[in-house]
Design brief:
The chain is α/β, with parallel strands linked by helices. It has helices at about 10-15, 40-45, 110-120, 125-130, 135-150, 150-155, 195-215, 225-230, 240-265, 270-280, 280-285, 290-305, 305-325, 325-340, 345-355, 360-370, 375-390, 395-405; strands at about 1-5, 20-30, 35-40, 60-75, 75-90, 95, 160-170, 175-180, 185-190, 215-220, 235-240. The longest helix is centred in the middle third of the chain and has 25 residues, at about 240-265. The protein is elongated, with a radius of gyration of 29 Å. It starts with a strand and ends in a 12-residue tail after the last helix. Bound molecules: zinc ion (ZN). Zinc ion (ZN) binds near residues 50, 53, 55 and 89.
Length: about 425
């Protein structure tokens, strides 16, 4: 056992990231782990507080000694230990008193947890685990605590235009409802579940004043979203997400491609079936992103396969509608609908019908000039995050990872200014 001189307790407090606490002794045990005995300053000991509400409460008992892991000091693992007295809160009952260096119910110091929360937004899963010697589930619990501390009211101030969507996790068995801010491109809120009751929680949190500020809501055609929006903020204009409309056309195009492929295959035209199958990505991609080879594939289709090429043009023209926006977009949409109706491609006739059904909401998005690029990009990143969050114990941990990465909630590294 090795004990160090603690003539400079404030220096030790700074090294351990527990500034504000008083370091009484520091020693290294046989396994090479550094353990510091600390205590809160006198004023905190005289006036202990409830960890839930922060109110000063009468002391209940001396509690027991507790240990928190701190950030490593160089190569050395470090812990701080302190007596944790208990208080009796009128509202919350008997609780371990609040300490300045750690969050409630945590076995890590605040500086340690903030480092974890910063790091998960910056590096790989295994990078975080190896560097900090943590299991992924523990990382999930830590970031949940960090995010729970953030004040949602501050995030939701001045929100005017929002997008609502659902994303699946756990291979499509479970869903999250997500709300994004069209103006900042940030993830505002997410919750486990995809139904009216789940989304209503968002409007409840926003409060009547916040709801009255919402001018515009974009979403897909789901009835549960519409119902919750109409009840939560009846004054807001509902828009159809262009992203979803275009995805109807992409799906229709894929259906046409499969039909054409099947017909060619059954007719024994192997070469032509193969060409259609190979064209999948060329048909999907935005024309600007096509490779030379893909351009050649499309040119060949335009000559040999009229129905499939027609389907491709229909998809592209629908994208063009949302790129044009405004009155020009609406006029193009009218022409598109007329074309879809007589195009003799069943999947597109169906898309035309769906668009007509949602025409008011689609016109609203064209009028308000809502671009979809931002939300679509955020959605893609969010999907990647849910995949990365695989292995967390709860949906709350996945949401925490989303809010840290895309909601601007990641704390600064301890000891640095923002
Ligand atoms: Zn309390």
């Amino acid at each position: 056992m090795m004990e160090w001189d603690v003539r400079k307790p404030s220096l030790w407090a700074r090294l351990l990231g527990v500034e504000g606490a008083i370091v009484e002794s520091v020693e290294m045990d046989r396994s090479g782990v550094l353990v510091a005995q600390i205590r809160p300053p006198a004023r905190e000991r005289r006036r202990p507080r409830c960890p839930d509400c922060g109110r000063v409460c009468p002391r209940y008992d001396a509690g027991r000694e507790r240990r928190w892991r701190a950030l490593d000091l160089g190569f050395v693992r470090a812990f701080v230990e302190a007596h944790a007295p208990r208080v009796r809160c009128a509202e919350h009952g008997v609780r371990t008193a609040k300490v300045s260096w750690a969050r409630h119910r945590s076995g890590f110091t605040r500086a340690f947890e903030d480092t974890v929360a910063w790091l998960v937004t910056q590096c790989s899963k295994s990078g975080v685990g190896e560097l900090l010697r943590l299991g992924w589930r523990t990382v999930g619990r830590i970031i949940e605590r960090v995010v729970a501390e953030a004040d949602p009211a501050a995030r939701l101030k001045n929100v005017r235009r929002i997008g609502i969507d659902e994303i699946s996790y756990r291979k499509g068995h479970r869903y999250l409802t997500v709300v994004v801010d069209h103006d900042t491109g940030k993830l505002l809120w997410a919750a486990n579940g995809h139904d009216e009751a789940t989304l209503s929680k968002f409007f409840e949190m926003l409060g009547p004043e916040g709801c009255a500020q919402i001018e515009l809501v974009s979403a897909d055609a789901a009835a549960w979203i519409r119902n919750a929006v109409r009840r939560g903020c009846p004054e807001a204009t509902l828009c159809m997400d262009p992203f979803h409309v275009v995805s109807w056309a992409t799906k229709a195009l894929d259906q046409v491609r499969r039909d054409v492929w099947n017909t060619a295959r059954k007719a024994g035209q192997r070469a032509s079936a193969k060409a259609v199958k190979g064209a999948r990505y060329a048909l999907w991609k935005n024309p600007d992103d096509l490779t030379l080879k893909q351009k050649a594939t499309l040119a060949a289709i335009s000559k040999t396969n009229r129905p499939l090429y027609r389907a491709y043009l229909l998809k592209e023209q629908l994208r063009q509608v949302f790129r044009l926006r405004g009155e020009a977009g609406k006029r193009l949409l009218d022409r598109w609908l007329a074309w879809a109706q007589r195009c003799r491609l069943k999947p597109f006739v169906k898309v035309g019908r769906s668009i007509k059904r949602m025409r008011t909401e689609i016109d609203a998005v064209l009028t308000h000039g809502l671009t979809n690029a931002r939300v679509e990009g955020l959605n893609t990143r969010l999907r990647l995050i849910t995949r990365r969050a695989f292995g967390f114990h709860s949906a709350e941990a996945i949401i925490a990872l989303g809010l840290l990465s895309l909601g601007g909630l990641a704390p600064c590294l301890p000891g640095r200014s923002p």
